[in-house]
């Protein structure tokens, strides 16, 4: 493969799925305790059928705000992107798909979460930046330990 002709390009960014639930509203607006906020991240990749050089990467962000048994809100956002990858050496694909693509997608997912929380009537929630390279390295290390 000719690395000088390598192409890595964003074709499209889009929300694939999004949901917001506030099961205890309006009671949750009257609660005085601060909720515990749990954030989960997951990345899935798949080639686009009929297009050899397109990959879909979906970053799923889940946010649950609870106080005890009471849920303030629950959010799931699937921020997706189509990425054109041509002449990329096979050994570079895992890092592109596991680090660079989620890094590109995260600010859009973060914005969608903040918007939904505000539209749901709650104080703005701005997720902290995520170091996807560190998460990738951690996953690689865990996978190596499991195979030993």
From TrEMBL:
BP GO annotations: protein tetramerization; protein transport
Keywords: Protein transport, Translocation, Transport
One Gene Ontology MF term: unfolded protein binding
Family (UniProt): Belongs to the SecB family.
PANTHER family in the record: PROTEIN-EXPORT PROTEIN SECB, PTHR36918
Protein name as catalogued: Protein-export chaperone SecB
Taxonomic source organism: Acidithiobacillus sulfuriphilus
